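Risk register update: the risk of archive-format incompatibility is retired. Evidence:
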Amino acid sequence: MVDSPHDKLFKEAFGSVPAMAALLRSVLPSSLAARLDLGTLSAVPGTFTDARLAASESDLLFSVELEGRPALVYVLVEHKSGTDRWVTFQVLRYVVRIWERVLAASPSPSALPPVIPLVVHHGEVPWAGPTRLVELVDLVVVELPELGRLVPDFAVLLDDLTVATDAELESRQLGLFATVAAVFLRDARDPVRVVPAVDRMAALYGSLRRAPDGARAVALLLRYLSLVADVDPVEVTAVLERQLPEAKELVMNWVERWQEEGRRMGRQEGRMEGRLRTLRRQLELRFGPLDDSLLAQLEGADEEELDRYTERVLTAGTVGEVFVASRVAR
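Archived output:
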């Protein structure tokens, strides 16, 4: 699985123990945070998310002691443009996968460790979805308490970066890199907010660049902007050259890469559009006009899915077989 730009930046900035410890102190209920020994916090390798959701979410897992006993903190990072109603259910599935891995270890534990689920959201709009599993179940479980007791329920903690202010993010004491990364995760996709955000964070760039491994951190932030920001690089360059005069060469190299990346993406998007037009024409010649749902599925397809559709278009008996067969192939 190839990480998206959002995954890459979040994992680089928050995958460190100090940054994650600061994040947990700021979002966990104070009574719970006080019982965690964050000095024992350590990253656990591996991922539990579904491959098909790789473009819209990623995850991190940490182990920590809770009053001397083992516990786990599961962090799901959600970066969809809108709220996904089913994220809480997805988290339940991921927690079960974590427990399955725990049970598969040798020696087998006598009890399952508690897993603290945290969803970090940085979409283009604020979070508006459920945070309790029961909110996804038919209301009959509320109307019939004797049934409700038989239905699983749990809640996830939500950290919505979309609505956090600069002051709130800075007050978390995440460290220079994670603080700027959080602002960029929140603002970089908004053409109106991205340049002002780059300018507002200016006071931190110099300090970050002088910190250990700071040049790499600045380069990661610049690359993230080049991949996700819908803005003329000249605008961002003007701000960075003013705020980072000592790093002019770094900035100019980044601008050249940004412009080349834009040209490359333009060529790739052009190829994708050509493939979509050709495949749609083939489908309509064989099966007639496509309805809105199939058009949406076709236009939302990635290259791998387009390959599957193209392989099946000449042999499928119905248009539905083209798309259903592709979903099963996942």
